[in-house]
Amino acid sequence: MIRVVSAVPVPMLQEVLCDQIARAPGFALIGKASDPRDLPALVAKTHADVVICLSTDSEEIPGDYRQLLSQFPQLLIVGVIADHDAVVLYRQEVSRRELPSVGFGCLFSEIRQTCEGQPVVDRGSLRGISGPNFGTAPRPLRFSLN
């Protein structure tokens, strides 16, 4: 079972994501955070595998995510870029990875593969991301809430 914490501060988006997580086989919604400052304690308490939160389309990894990954190196952060209809995956060993246009089923499959340590095929072109402890990684994936 993949344990997921949702930390999306937009109520309607949070509701849609939580509903989809609840329907996804092999996933369990184990917590919600309305304030990103609550995430370290919530992740520690719940032993979350995945945190879903908002992100930006910046090439830089947000400082909050960098700090969370340094505290919990096994964690996968799924950053939803709501205004660009995209999602980025952040991990300690790889900062960003591009995926093809996906719906919830494909997104959950990618999360499952990443959490289970299965090799995931890189389907996008690579471009560099700067920052300590982070390697080269691809652009965000296109994503639809439909």
Q: What integer is the average pLDDT? A: 75
Categorize the overall geometry: globular
Radius of gyration: 14 Å
Q: Kindly report the CATH topology.
A: Rossmann fold
* Model regions low in confidence, pLDDT < 50 over at least 5 residues: 119-140
Task: Determine the strand fraction and express it as a percent band.
Answer: 15-25%
Structural class: alpha/beta
Order of helices and strands: EHEHEHEEHEEE
Oligomer: single chain
In which range does the helix fraction lie?
25-40%
Provide the CATH architecture: 3-Layer(aba) Sandwich
Q: Assign the CATH superfamily.
A: Response regulator
Tell me the count of domains: 1
Summarize the structure.
With 146 residues, the chain is of the alpha/beta class. The chain contains 4 helices and 8 strands, in the order E-H-E-H-E-H-E-E-H-E-E-E. The longest helix is centred in the first third of the chain and has 13 residues, at 11-23.
